[in-house]
Structures are given as structure tokens and as C-alpha cells.
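> example.struct
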């Protein structure tokens, strides 16, 4: 065992050099540093879904070379829970401090508690630093000191409470603890992830520079019209920053700062910027709701929904997952998901509503599919939004809001470019029937080469029938 005391940094969803409190604190302490990426094994509660896992590893590889170049530190990767990793390493090195950036969901918090216990027993100082949210969970409370149940009052209180301070800079050079890299190479971990999910993640550019460039492009091209364009499926009117944000490649504070600077520079951006910053606060609200209700990913928050008459229909579920429902906007979005691991927020609402309300499949099934495929998968954001769409969360869409997939397509993909991109088999259909191919004339179908039921499915369920059926079921549990 090396007797030179060192600082151990355990990294998780914080793969960045800038605005990284654990790195800054290690620099301040001044001892040699051992930087470790804590990698959860498959089946461990902190393990992300497959696309997000592949994406983390891509970013970790990028981060490792930046850490070496900018700080002179080698990144070690260790498998297991935080406490297991600490116990394994503690036998080889004398640590005076263990530093980590605080997590925000129950599995991460459970690991932190276990780690703190292990450090206490070993007499090692262990510090959790707030890093990945604008305000710590629990900081925005009502007058009675309780959590808000609905978003709007939470949002108002958040704005009163939040005082923006500029993100921290780079940590500078750090002294390497000189430990040999004992961990597992990235490539081996990446190979454990199924190929389709690895390919989806590989379509994205990892690293802090890519995250910043993406934000700058969004601010220059889309921020001004964000209020309206964010709903469009034709225009890429949103930032797509969720991928980098959820992996901690950029912090929320950095994202806020870039948008804040833009709105101070140019008054024309003020409205778009305020709406965008409000979305970042939705993210924090979802985290707060999960903190208050750890059952959020599994059980409806409104208990009456436990009696909802879900229909177990494995074939319908598979058709939804594969993008074979016969509703073009739903199918396009589901194919986008399994190709690039992402879809716009509007599309997420439409496909989630379709699964839950048109097909009467349990929202937990959709939540699990999204968890496996979303590059930006986050336990709180995913579960919160599924419950919102299903109408069973604390602040949920009203039960009678059932998205009409035909009208959603016509409104938000008016020129059909979204559907044509993801469903090339429908490319030749005229715009007026693109979102409802069953309304095309035999001549239009023939000219487009579309054969309903053969090269594109007939609708799995008829819209007005499904709507009436869902309304009856929802009304019964909502009363
Ligand atoms: C069924 C469903 C599941 C979802 N699952 C996830 C998930 O696992 N991870 C995730 O990050 N988001 C999830 N969202 C929220 C939202 O759709 C995405 O955050 C957004 O589409 C990401 O794209 P963007 O970065 O271009 O968003 P932008 O419109 O550019 O918004 C900027 C940021 O604000 C935050 N944000 C925006 N909308 C929401 C929202 N409704 N809830 C919480 N935060 C929001 C995100 O961090 C996003 O990156 C889900 C939404 C639905 C309807």
C-alpha cells in the first residue's frame, strides 16, 4: 500500500473539466489525486439504459484524454458501487479525502449513503459537492416548508430563490497520485452493450466542446423562435442539449449561463430565453418530485390509477416499439428513437399518449423502453413525464387530453419532412394523406408504391374508437 496520502475523486454523471466542483476542490486541497470513473455493472440500480450507457462511455473516453492533457491526470475506471470501489482501492492507497459530485436520484443517493458509511468507518473525510442542478433538491419549498405539487408555483418560487453565479472554471494542473491504471478499458465495457444501442449512441459527438458548440448553434439559430419552434417536428427547433446535460458533459449552470448571456446581449432573445430557462426548471421539478416520491418510476402517484384497466397486449406493445402502428407520426418517432436514441419532446408526448391511451398499455412499459433507448435517459425526467402524459402524476395532463396522432402530424409536421425522413416507404404520398395513409385513393397509393398491410401497416386501432374507449376508462378512474 502506498503511504502517501491522496485524494480520491469518484466520478459518475459529471464527465467535464469545466464547472466540476470535485476537480476544483481536489486542486484546492493540493494532495495527489486518483481520479476514478465509477462504472455500475449491468443490473446495478445506478446503471443507465443501454444507449445512455454507451454514450457515457464515449464521453468518458473523451474526458480521459482531456483530463490527461489539461490536468495531467490519468482516468481509472472501476466497476461496482461507490462503496465497493472505495473498499477495493482503500487497500492499495491511503486516502485522506474522497470527493464526489452529488447525484440526484434515489439509487445514486443510496450509494452515497453507503459510501459515506464506509468512509466514516475508515476514518476518511468524504465530501459530496452540489454540481449538476441549479439549486439543490429540497431548496424550493412553499410557505409551509413543504414541496410544491404543481409546477407553476414551484417555478415562480424557483425564480425568486435562484441567484445565478458564473460557473467555475477549469481546475488547472493536478498532482497525479501515480497509481497504475488498474481499471477496465472503455472498449471492453462498450462491447458489453448490444450493438444496436451502441450504434445509436455513436451517431452523437461526445465531449465538452461538442456540447458548447451545440448550445451556441442553438442560441444563434433557434433561441429567438424557441417558443414556437420547439413544438415543430420539421424544424430542429430545440437544443438537443439533453444528451450532454444528462451525462454531465455540460452543467445546467453552464447551459443557463450561455442563454443568460445571450438574452443580456440581445433583447430580441429575451422571450425565447425565458421559455428555455423555464424548461431547465421543469427538469429540476421532476427531480424534486422523484425525491418526494421514490415510487415515481413504478407506481402511479394518484393511487386511484392503480385500478386502471390496462390491456396486456404484447403484439401491440411490440408494434409500438418497432414503429409499426400504422400512424405515421408515431412510427416515425419510434424509428428515430431506435436509430439515434432521441426524439423531440413533442414526439415523446405523442408516442407516449398513443401507447397509454390508444393502446391501453401500462405506461411503465413505455418508460422501460425509453430508459433503454434514450441517450438522455434520466430516471426522474423519464418517469415524471410518463406519469404526466398518462395523467396519473402530481402535476399531470388532464385525463381527457388524448393526442390525436393525425392532427398532431398535420400540425407539427405540416410539410411531412419528419415522416418522410424516418419512413421513406411513405415518401411518395401527397402531403394531404401523409399522416393518414388509409385516406389515400388507390391511385395515390399506387403512384407512391404504398401497399397498406404489406409495406406499411394498416392502423393498429381506429382513432375515434380508441379515443372513446380511453375516455371511458380514464373517466372511470378519475371520478
Ligand atoms: C414521455 C417522456 C419521457 C421523457 N424522458 C426524458 C428523459 O429520460 N430525459 C430527459 O432529459 N428528458 C426527458 N423528457 C423531457 C423532454 O422531452 C426532453 O428533455 C427534451 O425533449 C430534450 O430535448 P432538448 O434538449 O432538445 O430540449 P429543449 O427543448 O432544448 O429543452 C432544454 C432542456 O430543458 C429540459 N426539459 C425540456 N423539457 C422537459 C420536460 N418535459 N421535463 C424535464 N426536463 C425538460 C431538458 O433538460 C432539455 O434538455 C421526456 C419527455 C416525455 C414526454
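> example.seq
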Amino acid at each position: 500500500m502506498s503511504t502517501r496520502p491522496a485524494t480520491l475523486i469518484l466520478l459518475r454523471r459529471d464527465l467535464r473539466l469545466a464547472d466540476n466542483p470535485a476537480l476544483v476542490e481536489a486542486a484546492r486541497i493540493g494532495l495527489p489525486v486518483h481520479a476514478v470513473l465509477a462504472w455500475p455493472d449491468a443490473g446495478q440500480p445506478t446503471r443507465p439504459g443501454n444507449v445512455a450507457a454507451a454514450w457515457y462511455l464515449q464521453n468518458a473516453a473523451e474526458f480521459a484524454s482531456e483530463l490527461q492533457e489539461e490536468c495531467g491526470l490519468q482516468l481509472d475506471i472501476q466497476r461496482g458501487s461507490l462503496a465497493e470501489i472505495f473498499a477495493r482501492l482503500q487497500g492499495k492507497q491511503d486516502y485522506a479525502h474522497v470527493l464526489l459530485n452529488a447525484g440526484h436520484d434515489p439509487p445514486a443517493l443510496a450509494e452515497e449513503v453507503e459510501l459515506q458509511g464506509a468512509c466514516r468507518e475508515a476514518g476518511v473525510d468524504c465530501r459530496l459537492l452540489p454540481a449538476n442542478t441549479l439549486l439543490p433538491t429540497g431548496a424550493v419549498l412553499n410557505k409551509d416548508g413543504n414541496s410544491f405539487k404543481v409546477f407553476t408555483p414551484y417555478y415562480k418560487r424557483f425564480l425568486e430563490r435562484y441567484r445565478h453565479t458564473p460557473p467555475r472554471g477549469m481546475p488547472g494542473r493536478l498532482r497525479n497520485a501515480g497509481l497504475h491504471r488498474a481499471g477496465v478499458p472503455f472498449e471492453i465495457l462498450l462491447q458489453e452493450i448490444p450493438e444496436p444501442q451502441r450504434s445509436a449512441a455513436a451517431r452523437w459527438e461526445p465531449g465538452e466542446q461538442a456540447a458548447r458548440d451545440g448550445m451556441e448553434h442553438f442560441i444563434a439559430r433557434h433561441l429567438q423562435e424557441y417558443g414556437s419552434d420547439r413544438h415543430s417536428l420539421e424544424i430542429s427547433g430545440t437544443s438537443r442539449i439533453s444528451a450532454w446535460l444528462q451525462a454531465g458533459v455540460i452543467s445546467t449552470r453552464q447551459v443557463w449561463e450561455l442563454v443568460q448571456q445571450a438574452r443580456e446581449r440581445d433583447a430580441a432573445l429575451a422571450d425565447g430565453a425565458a421559455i428555455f430557462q423555464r424548461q431547465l426548471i421543469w427538469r429540476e421539478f421532476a427531480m424534486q418530485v422523484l425525491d418526494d416520491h421514490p415510487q415515481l418510476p413504478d407506481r402511479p402517484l394518484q393511487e386511484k390509477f392503480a385500478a386502471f384497466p390496462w390491456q396486456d397486449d404484447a403484439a401491440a406493445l411490440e408494434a409500438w416499439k418497432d414503429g409499426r402502428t400504422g400512424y405515421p407520426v408515431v412510427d416515425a418517432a419510434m424509428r428515430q428513437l431506435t436509430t439515434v436514441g432521441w426524439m423531440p419532446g413533442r414526439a415523446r408526448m405523442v408516442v407516449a399518449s398513443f401507447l397509454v391511451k390508444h393502446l391501453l398499455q401500462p405506461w411503465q412499459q413505455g418508460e422501460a423502453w425509453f430508459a433503454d433507448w434514450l441517450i438522455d435517459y434520466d430516471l426522474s425526467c423519464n418517469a415524471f413525464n410518463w406519469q404526466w402524459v398518462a395523467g396519473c402524476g402530481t402535476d399531470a395532463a388532464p385525463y381527457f387530453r388524448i393526442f390525436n396522432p393525425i392532427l398532431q402530424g398535420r400540425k407539427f409536421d405540416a410539410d411531412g419532412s419528419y415522416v418522410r425522413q424516418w419512413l421513406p416507404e411513405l415518401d411518395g404520398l401527397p402531403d394531404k394523406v401523409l399522416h393518414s395513409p388509409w385516406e389515400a385513393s388507390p391511385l395515390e397509393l399506387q403512384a407512391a408504391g404504398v401497399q397498406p398491410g404489406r409495406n406499411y401497416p394498416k392502423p393498429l386501432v381506429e382513432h375515434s374508437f380508441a379515443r372513446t374507449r380511453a375516455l371511458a376508462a380514464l373517466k372511470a378512474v378519475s371520478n
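> remarks
Residues 230, 238-242, 245-246, 279-280, 282-283, 286, 344-345, 348-349, 352, 370, 374, 376-378, 381-382, 385-386, 389 surround flavin-adenine dinucleotide (CB under 6 Å).
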